[in-house]
Amino acid sequence: MDNIVVEALVRALAVGTPLLLASLGAIVNERSGIVNLGMEGVMAIGALAAFAVAASAPDASLWLAVLASMLAGAALCTLHALATVTLRANQFVSGLALALIGTGAAGLLGKKFEGLPLFNKVPDWTLGGFTVSPFTVVALLLAGALAFYLNATRPGLTLRSVGENPAAADVLGVNVGLVRWLGVLGGGALGGLAGAFLSLSYRSSWSDNMAGGLGWIAVALVIFVAWDPLRAVAGALFFGFLYYLQFRLQGNSPIPTEVFSAMPFVLVLVVLALAGRRGQAGSAPAGLGRAYVRGER
């Protein structure tokens, strides 16, 4: 019985890894005051960049493929930073556009990679008799590192202050625009890394709609965990367990498979409603979603 529980936790962590990485990226974005609804597109473009590099040659470096995914995610998010930080456009509209651009571009550019073999995937590690992806270990370490960075370092405090009260941070000499630019690009890099997990480790292939809605769940997960990196681990584990149940129960239950496919998205609505009832949305950074203009109140 204990082995079954541990196996379920390990599988849930594996499925929850891209959710955790993408939600950490969204936390970085939103702690700086910038809403990013485009994680679905960022994950898609990151997955494509990683697979394109890894499938280019039998001896292609997987580390280079991972780096390519992070650079691709950050590069795509430059559009979002330009629109929201520099041009002060509506952050929600820009994020939705980013999701469409990312998924559309990945689908178009990735057609030539569909069905191609991956010469070498990221090898799993064996820990305690169970196989674990290095991406999972890295995601857990990043969650702890980000929590420490935000709560115990001066740059982390600067990032949080820009998200809470950019005017006050500006008075203290903080370059609000630069901090927000870096926050958006850093979050984009983590979103791209989440995509690399999908194409290099979890599925080890490329196909259109690679993210499969995980980016949207990650955005909602940030609200559910109250913008806390350590709570994001528990949230990702919870939704990963739902996906694990979906795979285990399909074909072994009289319930139509469409019900299981919709279950994670239905649960997103439920947990967000519960978070709203608890007033959890009130813990959002005070400056979230608001463009900053020096001298305006």
From TrEMBL:
One of its GO terms (molecular function) is transmembrane transporter activity. Its main location: membrane. GO terms for cellular component: plasma membrane. Coiled coil: none annotated. It comes from the Bacteria. The keyword Cell cycle does not apply. The keyword Transmembrane helix applies. It is a multi-pass membrane protein. Keywords: Cell membrane, Membrane, Sugar transport, Transmembrane, Transmembrane helix, Transport. The chain crosses the membrane at residues 9-28, 34-55, 62-83, 89-109, 130-150, 181-202, 214-243, 255-275. InterPro entries: ABC_transp_permease. It is found in: Cell membrane. CDD domains: TM_PBP1_transp_TpRbsC_like (cd06580). This is Simple sugar transport system permease protein. It comes from Deinococcus metalli.
